[in-house]
Backbone:
């Protein structure tokens, strides 16, 4: 299960073109594996997200990329944080994740969510539907995917998906953990309690206790043992050997996105920096230790500002892994 996952959220790096891109990503995965991360995760999007860049920045199709990373690593689990359910037929997704498990020697993980980025859907001609539609689709998809991953042959005549005696051969090498991403207390966390092995939360610190309480309540209502579910919390970090280096690397990342720190007010600069766990190893360890104490089992962490710089991912893993192990 994911207690310390490294997520790769962006693929636009200074001086790195398509020919060099996979090597830059693979190096991050290898550093993650060697420094104590248990899982490597990539985005499942076709356009870069607004909070990270512009739509025309690089975004690599996730399952092809994960299959490549399977040959560059040997221990870490591999998955998407998280698969957009709307992008693929669920039976085909079950086959895709199974193929990843086979090529990785039993290290695949299925991360899945309802999907939310409307621009991608419109641009690619993928039906977006309403919020309710997307969550109904996710639940039907899980009723197809999970049995297929368990060597069953599901039949479903749903409102959104239909399968008949769907076969998944060859089966996975090992049991594939299922992570549902999102923090919605009524729908998402109820589906975690009903279907998933893992929950990945994206929420402010002050909301964590309420999210965990909601998950507890759903487990109790469904008769699920809450201890069977691992809960990770998404974080964004910028770590360097010194605080000054970390600040310089974050400021360079922001400037490349049109947010020049030299022209920001102190208040705005503080607000932007507050989105990152920023600093030297001691500072980052202290902040994440405080967050771990809020009751989660671990973290998924991304490093959009400087993960592409050699040794930064390794530094993060060496800093945070002892907190999780302890």
Residues:
């Amino acid at each position: 299960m994911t207690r310390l996952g490294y997520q790769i959220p962006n693929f636009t790096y200074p001086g790195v073109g398509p020919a060099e891109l996979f090597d830059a990503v693979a190096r991050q995965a290898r550093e993650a594996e060697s420094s104590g991360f248990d899982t490597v995760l990539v985005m499942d999007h076709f356009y870069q997200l607004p909070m990270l860049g512009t739509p025309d920045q690089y975004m690599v199709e996730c399952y092809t990329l994960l299959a490549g990373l399977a040959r560059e690593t040997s221990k870490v689990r591999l998955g998407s944080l998280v698969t957009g359910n709307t992008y693929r037929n669920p039976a085909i997704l079950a086959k895709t994740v199974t193929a990843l498990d086979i090529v990785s020697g039993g290290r695949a993980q299925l991360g899945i969510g309802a999907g939310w980025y409307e621009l991608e859907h419109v641009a690619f001609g993928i039906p977006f539907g309403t919020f309710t539609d997307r969550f109904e689709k996710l639940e039907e998809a899980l009723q197809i995917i999970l049995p297929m991953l368990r060597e069953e042959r599901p039949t479903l005549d749903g409102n959104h998906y239909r399968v008949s005696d769907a076969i998944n051969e060859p089966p996975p090498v090992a049991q594939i953990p299922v992570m549902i991403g999102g923090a919605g207390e009524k729908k998402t966390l109820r589906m975690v309690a009903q279907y998933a092995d893992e929950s990945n939360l994206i929420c402010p610190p002050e909301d964590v206790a309420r999210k965990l309480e909601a998950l507890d309540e759903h487990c109790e209502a469904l008769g699920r043992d809450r201890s069977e579910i691992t809960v990770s919390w998404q974080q964004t970090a910028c770590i360097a050997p010194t605080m000054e280096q970390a600040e310089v690397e974050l400021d360079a990342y922001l400037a490349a996105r049109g947010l020049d720190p030299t022209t920001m007010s102190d208040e705005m600069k503080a607000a932007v920096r507050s989105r990152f766990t920023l600093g030297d190893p001691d500072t980052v360890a202290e902040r994440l230790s405080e967050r771990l104490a809020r009751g989660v089992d671990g973290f998924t962490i991304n490093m959009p500002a400087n993960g592409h710089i050699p040794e930064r991912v390794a530094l993060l893993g060496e800093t945070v892994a002892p907190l999780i192990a302890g």
In short: The domain at 4-241+279-325 is CATH 3.20.20.30 (TIM Barrel). The radius of gyration is 19 Å. The chain has a mean pLDDT of 96.
